[in-house]
UniProtKB/TrEMBL annotation:
It is an enzyme of class 2 (transferase). It comes from Paenibacillus harenae. GO terms for molecular function: kinase activity. Its main location: membrane. Residues 315-363 form a coiled coil. Residues 363-580 form the Histidine kinase domain. It is a multi-pass membrane protein. CDD domains: HAMP (cd06225), HisKA (cd00082). This is histidine kinase. Residues 282-334 form the HAMP domain. Its EC number is 2.7.13.3. The chain crosses the membrane at residues 261-280. Pfam families: HAMP (PF00672), HATPase_c (PF02518), HisKA (PF00512).
Amino acid sequence: MRRHSIVRKLFVVTSVLILIVFSLVMLAEGLFFERFYRISKIHALERNMNEFADRFGYTEPDKRLVSPLLGAFMNQNDASIAVLNGRFERETLNPYYLELQTEGQRVTILISTSGMTMDAIPKGLQLGDKLTVDGIFMDEKDTILHPVAFGPTNQEPELGMVRVTGNISEVLLPEQRSYNPLYQDALIDDALNGWVPEAETYLARLQAGSVVHAEWMDEWSGVEYAVLIRSLPAGKDGDLYLLAMTSLQPVGEAVGILKQYVVYIAPIIVVLVILLSMIYSKIVSRPLVQLSRSAERLARLDFTEHPEIQSKDEFGELSRNMTALSRNLDSALRELTRANVKMQEDMREKERSEELRKELIANISHELKTPLGIVKGFAEGLQDEVASDKRDRYLSLIVNEADRMNALIMDMLELSKFEAKAIQLLPRRLPLLGLIQKVADSFDQQLESRQLRIQFNADEGDKPFVTADARRIEQVVLNLLSNAIRHAEENSVITISVYRSSAVKVTTTIENVGSPIAEEDLSRIWDQFYRAERSRDRKSGGTGLGLAIVKHILELHESEYDVRNTNTGVAFSFNLNESREEPNEK
């Protein structure tokens, strides 16, 4: 895990935040849990007291009817309860009791809170169970029994006591109460004695229907109790009050156990927080790490396929956007590269065109200056009346130079038409060998003067036809053959080859024997006024525009043309589309 990585930062921040929250929760439990528990328990008891008061108002003030209400309230709220008269004296009520159905009558067994513990009462008593009780009758009709011992037993009852045996028809005993509930119920008198001296202080609030809160501690056990008192609907004997008392000992015990629990559980929670934070940080940061790597590749202009995050959240959307951005940037960069290459080529072409333009102007100036100088010189000689035997020679030279300038101007005009794309071809079916032979025949005088001869290489009996503009192709052959004769060595052979280079193409090659062209000049040989040999003077002939015109004509025919050095000289070649049409029969 790198020091400044997002995984480390997320892990540290998550762990610290969870530990801070955990510490605050533990601190809040230590400081406020006990108070919260007290307040919650007291408020719940207060609310149930108000409900009890409402039910008490609909009940006849009969002890036999009130006692079950008290017992049920005490079981439900784990509290001791008593009804007080107007002098804050406790009414004699026994909320817990048993009723036994004996032979001939029903006996009520009152469970007193004094002198008896829960251990003395048999466990799990239910309706219909048979039970034997020894005790003392409290009324003349022998229907209310104060219990002393619960049986069955084989011994005879003690002197002064009676034994009653029967089936349980009703039962209300302490349930879901804290330890020793009967002892807690017996403490009501002690708590009441401690509260009565201050009763006058709270009398107005009690009569107004408010609930008075107080706390009392049992000096023998040291347990704190919450004491709540409120008024009840007045009975026939005057004002009545309800006193409820509940132990606060479980609060302290819960807080103590919670502190011990925290001591044991805190290290486990810390370890779990660290592990879960590490896992969580890796899960959350994984897409961020992938996106960071993708962005790093984009920064390096690496537009290869990026792993896409397959999720429907913001990370997945960002990953898809970055992938789309990568593709768009790749496409744009490729387009810019192509445009840049094209622009560089255009700039080189422009520079080359500029150089050619300057060279063209220089060449034109040179080509026109020389014959004009010659014409002027001979014209001045004629003006000075040179000897009559020289006049014819001077006039002949003036005419030759005028023809040379005219040819140059005509070639320039022709070339300008090609460059302006003002030339339209008139293609037709024509015999290529016949056209070449016709052009070659026109060079008989030049061939004879330089002791050259032309050799044709073609398949015997094969006379291919091509589709082309006859006048323009004748001009191409004328220029190429003229160039080959001009630069050929004396007493050599010029070879003209005509053959099928493919199923639809016919290639023509014109090769002479002579000096080769420098490699760096091969690509510029087709430019106007470009001469591979700067040392050649005007005596070699030509205007310097012939090959440029040839290039434009062949490009209009969509022809592939080439120039190359051979073992003995130079070869020019071009191809034309073969015509498959049958000649018209006459």
